[in-house]
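Please produce the structure of this protein holding potassium ion.
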Amino acid sequence: MSALFRTATIRALERECIDRLGGGVLMERAAEAVAEAAARSARRLPRATPIVALVGPGNNGGDALLAVSKLRERGFPAHALALSGTEPSAADARAVWHRWHARGGAVGALDGLPAWLERRPLVLDGLFGIGLGRALEGAAAQAVRLLDQAPQCETIAIDVPSGVDADTGAIVGGPDAPAIRADLTVTMIGDKPGLHTGAALDHAGAVLVAGLGLAHETAADGELFGRALAMKLLRPRARDSHKGSFGSVLVVGGAAGTAGAALLAARGAQAAGAGKVFVAAPDGPVFDPGQPQLMTRGFEAGHEGIDAICIGCGLGRSAKAGDALERALRSALPLVLDADALNLVADDPALARQLATRAAPTVLTPHPLEAARLLGVSSREIQSDRIGHALALAAQTGATALIKGAGSVMALPDGCFSILAAGSPALATAGTGDVLAGVIAALLAQRMPAADAARLGAWAHGSAGELWQRSHPSGAGLSAAELPALVTSALAPA
Ligand SMILES: NC(=O)C1=CN([C@@H]2O[C@H](COP(=O)(O)OP(=O)(O)OC[C@H]3O[C@@H](n4cnc5c(N)ncnc54)[C@H](O)[C@@H]3O)[C@@H](O)[C@H]2O)[C@@H](O)CC1
Ligand SMILES: Nc1ncnc2c1ncn2[C@@H]1O[C@H](COP(=O)(O)OP(=O)(O)O)[C@@H](O)[C@H]1O
Ligand SMILES: [K+]
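Below is the modeled complex.
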């Protein structure tokens, strides 16, 4: 499944369903999905592993308490610990709470958690879901701290790991605020963007979507772009093809001291299938002795015979660099703007205006700090809402904007967004972004529309990182020069 739903859409779908079926039905189905997932986990764990549900004050807590009831009916030793001893405020949860007590069910207090943790329970996190309005505090924050000290306990988050914003993937209250770290998140009605980008990637674990019987794909707000969608964009090469069939990429960058950045972009372009690759560097030709097929071009030689330009990797911010960017923006060729090209645009309103009025396909590939410079905010603000800022950047520039980093986000000026479901912290090393810029330029040169080139390129790049990490589990030590070959493997049809 690839559809992503914002909280507001989930709420609307929920209301529509409750009007049709009456209250309680969805909670019944949600609790069943949680109980099913918990039962599966419990069967893998040592016999008699207790199941402990953390029950919050809203309907998320209602899901948790009803799941406990269902697990007990199936013979599992499931227990509930409530954040508050009083009845829940949410109506469906209140009904579950009263039914549970009417049958003689017990609910412990959350401060009993330390004693349970000594027995290595399976933990169900039902503290807060999509109704979280502020940072976790008090007993909820303390429960997160205790669970952080007990990483051996498996945790299943209900709907959203408590503390994570389901729309943005940021931790509510900032990166240092408490949030549950789950092994699995069972998310209700539809998948949420905030489970797949930024800080959330260290909190959500695997994501299981429980649709609860609501058909709603048409209401999706965004897309999770993974292998299945990537494979649909791959086209077999015609037998009767030649190097001219796959486009020529011009990489503009590689000033003295950072020549390698342009060469990495050139290798990336080569790896993603470009027919020919040229490098134009401001301080004289740069060569890649290991890649003798790469050609050089004079820095001011123009764009003849070129099908796509990749500009900015190691370019510097000299007047010469600015002129080259001005020429590239003026050309009618598909363009990737990375690194210093983005910094030059951020510093020069005339270049920014030129970018905004450009008609040819244009992809911007900022990391969060570059995105921050372009939008006039801090990188912390970017990370607090990666999707919102990617959309703002696309709207401001009229270009396809890819904000990189864990859970890269691609946004289009028309308001569509995709989260890339591929990536690895192995990629957090200098030069990997240069490779990506070249990869996307090669796909543009092969006539792929900007949105497809950005998504496929970023997915292949993220998958290349994952491939490398398979044989290097610590994730440390990847050199960017190793990436292009892995990108080629990732781009092979399954
Ligand atoms: N209504 C329904 O039929 C369904 C609801 N579902 C569940 O219900 C959840 C949403 O329920 P709610 O809207 O009740 O929201 P939550 O269960 O997320 O909790 C919201 C409650 O917590 C309070 N609150 C928010 N942040 C707090 C904080 N930091 N500290 C203390 N209190 C805080 C709010 O004032 C509100 O009372 C979903 O995530 C999902 O788990 C699912 O069962 C699907 C069906
Ligand atoms: N923790 C991470 N998880 C996934 N991808 C990452 C992570 N850290 C970095 N990356 C990826 O590595 C690349 C780094 O690019 P960038 O910051 O521009 O580096 P450079 O300019 O040195 O090439 C981006 O594609 C980014 O998405
Ligand atoms: K939760």
